[in-house]
Amino acid sequence: MAYHHGDLRRTLLDAAAASIAESGTAKLSLRALAKTAGVSNAAPTHHFGDKTGLLTALAAEGFDLLAESVTPSSEQGLVDMGVAYVRFALDHPSHFAVMFEPALLRDGDPELTAAQARAGEALAAGVAGALPDGDDESSRYAAWSIVHGFATLVLSGAISVADPIAQARRVASRLVAREGGRA
């Protein structure tokens, strides 16, 4: 059944994201992914080693996508960055589901560690540039907690809003209004 496949790694990551979106991480199966991709059962193992390796690669990709999404521009304020964070979570729910679940990931993986650092630096830079005390760790945690919590509540179905992006803008605006930062 094994044959040349254009970009099997990409195909498997996409199939994993689709599977997680449909059934969650617990039901993710390398064997099922191989079947979906039309390759041998051993092919995913060749690329990722095991399920943990696959989830780690998906999380690393997610952190890179998050870093790209929230990297501040000169005209982007904290609210825009918060909205970008929520939009990332809604656009990439499977990545988001694994990124913040350390028990699912390979601890110390260099690709994951580097991607986490890139995302963390982008988030920290945005908060530092937007709030008067943005270099303060508590301010960074507060800003992150608000948008991460909102995204998590929307994705889990705990809250339902007609327009989650518009609501994310209003939620993120609360932090800026209280802190006197740049909207």
Write a concise synopsis of the structure shown.
This protein is mostly helical. 70% of the residues lie in helices and 0% in strands.
Give structural attributes:
Tetracycline Repressor, domain 2, Arc Repressor Mutant, subunit A, elongated
The H-level CATH homologous superfamily of the largest domain, spelled out, is Tetracycline Repressor, domain 2
How many structural domains are formed by the residues? 2
Total helical elements = 9
Number of strands: 0
Proportion of helical residues: 55-70%
Assign an overall shape: elongated
The fraction of residues assigned to DSSP E strands is under 5%
Radius of gyration: 18 Å
In terms of quaternary structure, the protein is single chain
CATH topology group of the largest domain: Tetracycline Repressor, domain 2
The end-to-end span amounts to: 55 Å
Q: Topology as H/E string?
A: HHHHHHHHH
How would you sum up this structure, described in words?
The chain is an all-alpha fold and 183 residues long. It has two domains: 1-49, Arc Repressor Mutant, subunit A; 52-179, Tetracycline Repressor, domain 2. It contains nine helices and no strands. It has helices at residues 8-23, 30-37, 43-48, 51-70, 78-91, 93-99, 110-130, 137-156, 164-179. Helix 1 crosses helix 6 and helix 4 (51-70) packs parallel to helix 7 (110-130). The longest helix has 21 residues, at 110-130. The radius of gyration is 18 Å and the shape is elongated. It starts with 7 loop residues before the first helix and ends with a helix. The mean pLDDT is 89.
SSE layout:
Blueprint: H1 8-23, H2 30-37, H3 43-48, H4 51-70, H5 78-91, H6 93-99, H7 110-130, H8 137-156, H9 164-179
Helix pairs in contact: 1-2, 1-4, 1-6, 4-5, 4-6, 4-7, 5-6, 5-8, 5-9, 7-8, 8-9
